[in-house]
Design goal:
mainly alpha; elongated
Length: about 80
């Protein structure tokens, strides 16, 4: 069980990092803090629709991996 816990903890750290990075790569939708820091200006120079959809898919996949890892760590902790 110790090896499984270590693997899940490493996967949790990696997926947390990639989840944060993929969320920060998203284009601002207007309003709020993104406009305060110049997000509204770059709306014409933003990524294309295909790139944004691929980033959405990557973000969802990483979020699902993160959730499964959290559940797995919870189960390992409960069984130990």
């Amino acid at each position: 069980m110790n090896v499984v816990r270590i693997v899940l903890q490493v996967l949790l750290v990696l997926s947390s990092f990639f989840l944060i990075m993929s969320i920060l790569l998203h284009k601002g939708k207007g309003g709020g803090l993104s406009d305060m820091f110049g997000g509204g200006i770059s709306s014409s120079a933003g990524s294309s629709g295909v790139a944004e959809r691929n980033l959405d898919r990557i973000t969802v996949a990483v979020a699902i991996t993160w959730t499964i890892t959290i559940v797995g760590l919870g189960l390992v902790a409960k069984l130990s």
